[in-house]
Amino acid sequence: MSMAEFVGREYRALQVSALSNDFSGTALVTQQIPAIADDAVLIRVKAASLNFPDVLMTQGTYQFKPELPFVPGLEASGEVVAVGQAVAHVRVGDAVIAMVRQGGLAEYLIAKPHEVRRMPANLSWAQGASYSVAGLTAYVALVSRGHAGAKETLVVHGATGGTGLAAVQLGKHLGMRVIATGRSLAKLEIARQMGADHLIEISTALRDDVLAATQGRGADVVFDPIGGDVFDASVRALAWGGRLLVIGFVSGDAGQVRSNYALIKGISIVGVRAGEFVRRDPERGQAALAAIDSLAAQGVLLPPIGEQFAFADAKAALERLASGSIAGKLVVNM
Q1: For 133-276, which CATH superfamily applies?
Q2: What are the DSSP calls for 137-199, one per residue?
Q3: Does pTM top 0.90 for this prediction?
């Protein structure tokens, strides 16, 4: 079908019409496909996965604040059903992955060409929708920004979520010794299954626990999406020349570091915004995306899927993610 034949077609989307902490402003609605530009790709979504920024955006606390109303969802997989005349790298019928700033939690998704990639042939729709955000974040953090190396020690905080598990997988692939941390040793077993060498249940003794696990030396690299007290303890648990990779602030607190401590230990505090990395440095960004696609196709970088929801229960899926009780990625199937 041509692009024009889809204009006006009704479809369902999970729409945020008002910001709230309890998702009261979020509901399934019916929309119509608008006129589509020549440089756009129309995708019939098969699956979408959720990421914690989706929760933060519904609350208005994420660094990217889309105008209301908006449809959350940073990544999805699906079938190309129409393309603009200026699009050449995908065709109608292709199975693709879309990584976008919003819009994935809908039956149809309009994406720009640079947001769309062919999906590795050996993946399911759910797998295809699940690894881009987590995998790209891990890759940009460890490889592009953190310069992680074989035989170094990597501490991954939040190692039961999709992004943390991707960091565990990639760290092992790079030949690192990986220490996984989380709030529950039982939930951390999934990190051990992904290759983690040592597990730490986060407590007020986090610094001492990391030092004990590294025979007093400290960590070479820390992957931190938590912030707050975890960030503060991680700074003190770094080895000489260590790098603390700031991924986010799930705790709600950014944490602080004194400059004299950075000087004395020769450490680096490195900010990681994977999406912004791709937007500001397209050449290196596309190389990173090609790398994670290859690793996903090999089965190296595929965070496990913890739970799957039907699209009718998409709001409940967001609530489940916000509860912090899920291990692995959460997928909504269309």
Answers
A1: Medium-chain alcohol dehydrogenases, catalytic domain (3.90.180.10)
A2: HHHIIIIIIT---TT-EEEESSTTBHHHHHHHHHHHHTT-EEEEEES-HHHHHHHHHTT-SEE
A3: yes
